[in-house]
Specification:
single chain; 279 residues; mainly beta; 5-stranded antiparallel β-sheet; 19 strands
Length: 279
């Protein structure tokens, strides 16, 4: 089951003199500058604005013009106020050998040092992920992109599951925070335990030493009903460094005792600097 809800949190990165202002064109224009000559569909756009006001965009496209087939791949462009750069393939490390596997739902974030980070989901079994849908990550390095990393590596290789709708933000210390929705029936241990095959909100963070072990942000993940799906997460970094995550949930009863009924509601959790998630 794929959840049909959408959440979007937009962050302007703080500059020394205040908050950066985005470039707003006088008239509508195209972000994918190859629009007049391409033959594929471009969709699922994500935007981020850095401290200098530069707008960064990622999206999914099945245009065959890059010579990597007509399956969906991940593309990037940026604007400094005078138009958009030519589209650049983010997942170029395997795009030409993925056998038609789809890459989709990219999300972009910019760190305090100006580094651009991107996450997406892929059906290609890169780095042993198998042919189920998993979350990948890459960051912009110089004029190109780093080799994609498997975010959910501590279960992706051994569990056949579907991961959807990743979200990403970067802390003031440069830590990359990622959430996504997954039906992986994995045992997360601790107070959560096995989480069943309903969709839950999973989380991992990337520091200088690599990715943290995956955990669940929805504290009911180990006890909720099979129909209590959680999905479409969004993330942002607040001015004091607090990380905020929000998502749609069908859980009827929260751990705190609140009765929410059987409809979808919007839940959230926060991670204060140096603290733990409010679960």
């Amino acid at each position: 089951m794929r959840l049909c809800f959408a959440l979007s949190l937009i962050t302007l990165v703080a500059a020394a003199g205040g908050w950066a202002q985005p470039f707003l064109p006088a008239n509508p224009d195209v972000i994918n500058s190859n629009a007049a000559t391409d033959t594929g569909d471009d969709s699922l756009l994500s935007l981020a604005i850095d401290a200098q006001g530069i707008v960064h965009a990622v999206w999914s496209s099945n245009d065959p013009g890059f010579g990597t087939g007509n399956d969906d791949e991940i593309y990037y462009a940026r604007s400094e106020g005078t138009g958009w750069t030519a589209p650049q393939q983010v997942n170029s490390a395997y795009a030409g050998i993925d056998g038609g596997a789809v890459d989709t739902t990219p999300r972009v974030a910019v760190g305090p040092d100006g580094t651009v980070h991107c996450v997406w989901v892929s059906l290609y079994g890169y780095k042993g992920a198998g042919n189920d849908q998993d979350v990948f990550y890459s960051r912009r390095c110089g004029s190109g992109w780093s080799d994609p990393e498997l975010v959910d590596s501590n279960y992706a290789v051994t569990y056949f599951s579907q991961d959807f709708n990743p979200a990403v933000t970067v802390g003031l210390d440069g830590t990359v925070h990622v959430t996504w929705s997954s039906d992986a029936n994995v045992n997360l241990g601790g107070t959560i335990g096995p989480i069943g095959t309903d969709f839950d909100i999973l989380y991992s963070a990337r520091t200088a030493v690599g990715w943290s072990s995956v955990t669940a942000l929805n504290s009911e993940a180990g006890t909720d009903a099979a129909a209590d799906d959680d999905g479409t997460p969004a993330m942002t970094t607040m001015e004091d460094g607090t990380i905020l995550a929000a998502w749609a949930s069908k859980v009827a009863t929260l751990t705190a005792g609140s009765n929410l009924g059987t409809d979808y509601d919007i839940l959230y959790s926060i991670l204060p600097p140096g603290g733990s998630w409010t679960l």
